Every structure is written in C-alpha cells, then in structure tokens.
C-alpha cells in the first residue's frame, strides 16, 4: 500500500452526504500508513500559492532581518530558526533547514499565557515583510477549518458521533511552520537530512509542499515511500495524539525529508500542526477499547502529552525552548 489519495468532495460540511464513504477511506489510510493526500479540501489554491510566494520572500531576507525575530527571543515558540537549529533524529546530524514558526496570537491576559503553557503567546513578524502577518492569519484560519472537519471525519471513522472531538477545540495550539531546505549536499553521508526521522506530536498535520518532493514516509512494512507532490492536494498525517486517542488503532508514522529531487534548488514546504486545547483530555475512545480490556494508554491532557514528548526528545522541561516536531 502506498500513500492513498482521498477526495473530500461532498464531505466538507457537517452531516454531508459523502461523509460516511470518506470516513471509511480515512479509516483504511489511518490504520495503514497514517499518511494520505486530500484533494478538493476547500482551501483555495490561490491562498496556498500566495503563501508560498511569501515563504520564498521571507527566507530571501538578509539573515540579520530574520535573526531579529529569532525563536530564542520568544517565550512562546514563535519566530525564526536558523539552519541546523533543530535535530529531529537524535542519531543524525542537525537538520538542513531554516524555519519560521507562527500560530494563533494569544493575548497576555489569556489564562493559558498566564499559566505559561508552551507555545501560547504572541507572534513575531519580520519588519521587512509587513504583509506576512495577515497572510499567515488567513492561511491558519483556512487550515484550522479543514483540520476541524478532518477531526469530525476521524470521529465518524471511529464509529463515534461526528462532533465527538469538537469540545477539544476551545483554545487550540495551532502552529504554522514555514520551511526552506537547501539542496542536499553532494556526497553527504547517510546521517544527513533536511529533516531527520520523526513523528509529529499533535493530532493532525496538513502539509503543503512545493513541486520538488523530498518527503519520505515510513510504511508499516518498514519501507520508505516518497510522498511525491500531487497537484492541488495536501499531505495529511496523524500526530502521536491520535494513537493515544485510538488505543493504537491509528498510526502516527515516522517521516523524514531529503531535498534530493530539486535539481539543486531549495525546497519549500508549509506544515500546519493542529493540536487541540492544552487542557483537553486525551482518553482512549470507547470504540477502540474492546470490552474487558485495559486501554494501552493512561488518560492524559494534551499538555501532559506534549510535555512528555519534549522531555523524551530534548531532555528539556516544556518551559525551555524546544522545537515542535
Ligand atoms: O517538509 C516536509 O515535507 C515535512 C516537514 C515535517 O515533517 C515537519 O516539520 O514536521
Ligand atoms: Fe513532521
């Protein structure tokens, strides 16, 4: 099985006619690779194209302009991370990518900011590219809508009410990441990656990638499959919260990036990480725990799960700078 392509036509609205059929396709994809493409997903192509144009302009800014809004100046994981700033696979070399993080703006008096929850706070925007803020806000709103709809279809696919997860969206942690990968160095060793092997930690990732490709997905068989770009489609993958919710039925599969197909050009990609409300409970859903069996995972909150991941992969407390995979 490769990476399936799911057409969301007729399934984008609550209660829509094709939802059950799409949910059945989702179930197969989530029990298999945990990765799939979606098309006719409702996010306008022009919005995605405009986002890519600004991503390019952002990374083309002089380094000093980007460093002025460094991630390290942000208490809430927002801003620029330079080349080699993250090592997603601890057994490999630092990742060959530059990135920029932004998300929902949470005001200083929001309870989650006051409680110091990781990544809740305000964005930093580059002075040289004033239109980036508005564009990212519009893009995030469109991706948020799609992520919420996919959570509803996921609920259906688990034979749960369509609105089962809706209450976990109250103050979500939405992270948009802009990425530029330089060309893979010639003669690089086997420990060199644009992004080392990792799983994502949230619930759902919606990835827009340029035409070059380079994303590789580890299939349940252990083989690596190229997530070749599909015109008009987004790549969707499940984060580690979903196996917790589904008692291990649905996968969050490892993936990595090597920019080896671009003919020497940089590669750009835009992952949107949907993570529910920090205080929401992640409890294995009833339809995934056979009667009389003990769930594989202890109930936890979204925040507790994230803190455990930060500790496991960085040896850091969640209040320190740690990158969101
Ligand atoms: O750039 C890509 O295609 C994937 C990036 C990724 O996996 C991540 O940022 O978590
Ligand atoms: Fe990822």
Automatic annotation (TrEMBL):
GO BP term (any one): ethylene biosynthetic process
Catalysed reaction, written as an equation: 2-oxoglutarate + O2 + 2 H(+) = ethene + 3 CO2 + H2O; L-arginine + 2-oxoglutarate + O2 = guanidine + L-glutamate 5-semialdehyde + succinate + CO2
Keywords (A to Z) from UniProt: Dioxygenase, Ethylene biosynthesis, Iron, Metal-binding, Oxidoreductase
Pfam families from the UniProt entry: 2OG-FeII_Oxy, DIOX_N
Record pathway: Alkene biosynthesis; ethylene biosynthesis via 2-oxoglutarate
InterPro entries with a match to the protein in the record: DIOX_N, IPNS-like_FE2OG_OXY, IPNS-like_sf, Iron_ascorbate_oxido_reductase, Oxoglu/Fe-dep_dioxygenase_dom
Record-linked PROSITE patterns: FE2OG_OXY (PS51471)
GO molecular function: 2-oxoglutarate oxygenase/decarboxylase (ethylene-forming) activity; dioxygenase activity; metal ion binding
Cofactor: Fe(2+)
Domain called Fe2OG dioxygenase: residue spans: 169-276
Residue runs in coiled coils: none
EC identifiers of the protein: 1.13.12.19, 1.14.20.7
Family: Belongs to the iron/ascorbate-dependent oxidoreductase family.
Protein name: 2-oxoglutarate-dependent ethylene/succinate-forming enzyme
Native source species: Acidovorax soli
